[in-house]
Design a protein that fits this description.
about 220 residues
C-alpha cells in the first residue's frame, strides 16, 4: 500500500493538472464556486481514504494511473460546486454507512443533510407517533411537522381503523414524499388549530321581522 502522504501528493498533482479539461463545470451566476484548490485537496483526501478503506474494490476500479486520473477529472467536474468541508463530511459518512466503494451519485447523496440532522424520524417511528398521538391532532407536540402532515394526508380515520400492514405503506408513501421536500429545503407549515366555522345566519321568523320593522318606523316617525 502506498505511503499516505506520498499518495496525497501524487493525487494532488494529478488532479491539479487535469482540472482545466472541458469536463470542468463552469461558475454559476447565482452562487460563486468554492475555492478550487480546497476542493482538489478534499477530493484527494477522499480518494486516499477510499483506498485505505475499500482497498480491493479501489484497486479494481482504478487499476492504473490513467483510470485514476480520468476518475479524478470526472469527480472534480461533478463536485466542484460543493464546499470542501461538505465533501469531506460526505466521504466520512459514506465510509460509516456503505460497505461498497461509493459512486459520484452516492457521494452527492451523502452531501445532502441526513434525516437525523433534519429532525426527521424514520418512517416506522413516524407512523407509530401518528397513530398514538391523541386528539386533537393539530394540538399535539409533534417531533416534526412532516409526521403530522403525513398522517393528515393518509386520513386519521384510515390509520385508526386499519391494520399496520394496510395502513403503514400508505402513510410511508406520504411521509417519504414530505421528507424529500424537507431535504430540498422546503419548510412545512407547523400544525395549528383549525379555525371554528362561522355561525350560520338564521333567518328571522315573520313575527320578529314585523316587530323590528315597527321599531324602525317608530324611530323614523313614519
Amino acid at each position: 500500500m502506498h505511503d499516505s502522504k506520498k499518495l496525497l501528493d501524487q493525487a494532488k498533482q494529478q488532479l491539479a493538472s487535469s482540472t482545466s479539461t472541458p469536463t470542468e463545470a463552469g461558475p454559476t451566476a447565482s452562487k460563486p464556486l468554492p475555492d478550487k484548490s480546497a476542493v482538489i485537496d478534499a477530493i484527494n483526501r477522499m480518494f486516499a481514504e477510499f483506498e485505505l478503506v475499500y482497498h480491493n474494490q479501489y484497486n479494481k476500479a482504478f487499476a492504473n494511473a490513467e483510470k485514476l486520473s480520468y476518475a479524478k477529472k470526472l469527480w472534480f467536474s461533478n463536485l466542484c460546486h460543493i464546499p470542501p468541508e461538505q465533501i469531506t463530511a460526505a466521504c466520512h459518512r459514506a465510509i460509516r454507512e456503505s460497505e461498497f466503494l461509493p459512486t459520484i451519485k452516492g457521494i452527492l447523496k451523502y452531501c445532502e443533510p441526513d434525516d437525523q440532522a433534519l429532525g426527521l424520524p424514520d418512517p416506522h417511528s413516524a407512523y407509530v407517533e401518528a397513530c398514538r398521538a391523541p386528539s386533537p391532532k393539530n394540538e399535539y407536540r409533534w417531533s416534526h411537522p412532516a409526521v403530522y402532515h403525513a398522517g393528515r394526508k393518509s386520513d386519521w380515520y384510515f390509520l385508526a381503523n386499519n391494520t399496520e400492514q394496510q395502513a403503514f405503506p400508505v402513510y410511508k408513501r406520504h411521509y417519504q414524499a414530505l421528507c424529500e421536500q424537507v431535504r430540498k429545503g422546503q419548510a412545512l407549515e407547523p400544525p395549528h388549530p383549525e379555525a371554528l366555522p362561522a355561525p350560520e345566519a338564521k333567518p328571522l321568523d315573520p313575527e320578529e321581522q314585523r316587530r323590528r320593522m315597527r321599531e324602525m318606523r317608530s324611530k323614523l316617525n313614519i
